[in-house]
């Protein structure tokens, strides 16, 4: 196994849409969603929407069928498979939910390529209703120790994570915060940046004992900004061009310690990702590049100085 961990955001990175919006729109609940959005935290609203859809007779199978139509480009699939074949460890850090991600990845035969999925818990209850646990929202209402210079847009953000580690973290924050006051925010305004940053920090700490050396991070949203600040020299940040994380990074790239390599679409994602993996593997082995391809990419900057958790271990 190579000492490279590739961390993917999910929505608008692996799939070319937002999975929450895809299901809400696909099952005809857009109007109610938009009506309630100003009144509820995002993940609480998604849990509410799943309840509403269930009461309207929509089944889990309807949701699964909808998820299977979410756009996932073949070149993203090939990029994932090639990265895995080259020995990289692949993980996901997302503010979607586990049910959506698992369903989509399994549909495309990609689920087993990922060793870890960090996201909000999502499960089917005894009534056959999809439940989405709003850890993200509870975590959302206060600063929680991130010392990065995140903009206000990510200053009160979090993600729900899917393992005992994340759940424990959220519970700890609930305890420390006492009565958590939930605000009226949507995910577009308050992303998952800080919690994602904490996930990255946890991964980095574990890397020390696991012998991993470098991280490549791919994302598009504001929630991916704090992780970019956690990355270190020798890592690579791959923001999607002209998406929120790109705007944040390019507004002051000197805040990042890592190289920045943008991508616009699936084709460019694959080219840039495999090129960067090639660079890291070549440097690791101190041998000529393992792959010979005519790469075309330009980093936004190359700076001499310099980027937390459902963590569910995917059974192999
Ligand atoms: Mg995203």
From TrEMBL:
PANTHER family: LP01149P (PTHR20889:SF12), PHOSPHATASE, ORPHAN 1, 2 (PTHR20889)
Entry cofactors: Mg(2+)
InterPro entries registered for this protein in UniProt: HAD-like_sf, HAD_hydro_PyrdxlP_Pase-like, HAD_sf, Pase_PHOSPHO-typ
Pfam families per record: Put_Phosphatase
Keywords per UniProt: Hydrolase, Magnesium, Metal-binding
SUPFAM superfamilies on file: HAD-like
Protein's name in the database: Inorganic pyrophosphatase 2
Active site as annotated: 9, 11
Molecular function per GO: metal ion binding; phosphatase activity
Binding sites annotated in the UniProt record for substrate: 20, 95
NCBIfam families with a match to the protein in the record: DKMTPPase-SF (TIGR01489), HAD-SF-IB (TIGR01488)
Source organism of this protein record: Acorus calamus (Sweet flag)
Positions annotated to bind Mg(2+): 9, 11, 220
Coiled-coil positions: none
């Amino acid at each position: 196994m190579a000492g490279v961990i590739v961390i993917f955001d999910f929505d608008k990175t692996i799939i070319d849409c937002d999975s929450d919006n895809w299901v809400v729109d696909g099952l005809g609940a857009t109007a109610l969603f938009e009506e309630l959005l100003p009144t509820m935290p995002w993940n609480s609203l998604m849990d509410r929407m799943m309840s509403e859809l269930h009461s309207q007779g929509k089944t889990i199978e309807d949701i699964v069928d909808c998820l299977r139509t979410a756009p996932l480009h073949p070149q993203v699939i090939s990029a994932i498979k090639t990265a895995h074949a080259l020995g990289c460890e692949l993980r996901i850090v997302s503010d979607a939910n586990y049910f959506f991600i698992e369903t989509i990845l399994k549909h495309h035969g990609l689920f087993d390529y990922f060793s870890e999925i960090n996201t909000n818990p999502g499960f089917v209850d005894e009534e056959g209703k999809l439940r989405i646990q709003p850890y993200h929202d509870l975590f959302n209402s206060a600063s929680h120790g991130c010392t990065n210079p995140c903009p206000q847009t990510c200053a009160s953000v979090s993600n729900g994570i899917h393992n005992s580690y994340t759940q424990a973290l959220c519970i700890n924050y609930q305890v420390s915060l006492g009565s958590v006051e939930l605000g009226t925010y949507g995910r577009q305004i308050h992303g998952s940046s800080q919690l994602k940053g904490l996930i990255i920090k946890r991964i980095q700490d574990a890397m020390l004992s696991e012998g991993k050396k470098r991280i490549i991070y791919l994302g598009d949203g504001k929630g991916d900004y704090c992780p970019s600040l956690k990355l270190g020299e020798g890592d690579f940040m791959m923001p999607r061009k002209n998406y929120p994380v790109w705007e944040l990074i390019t507004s002051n790239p000197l805040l990042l310690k890592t190289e920045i390599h943008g991508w616009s679409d699936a084709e460019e994602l694959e080219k840039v990702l495999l090129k960067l993996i090639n660079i890291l593997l070549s440097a690791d082995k101190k041998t000529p590049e393992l792959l010979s391809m005519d790469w075309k990419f330009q980093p936004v900057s190359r700076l001499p100085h310099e980027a937390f958790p459902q963590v569910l271990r995917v059974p192999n």
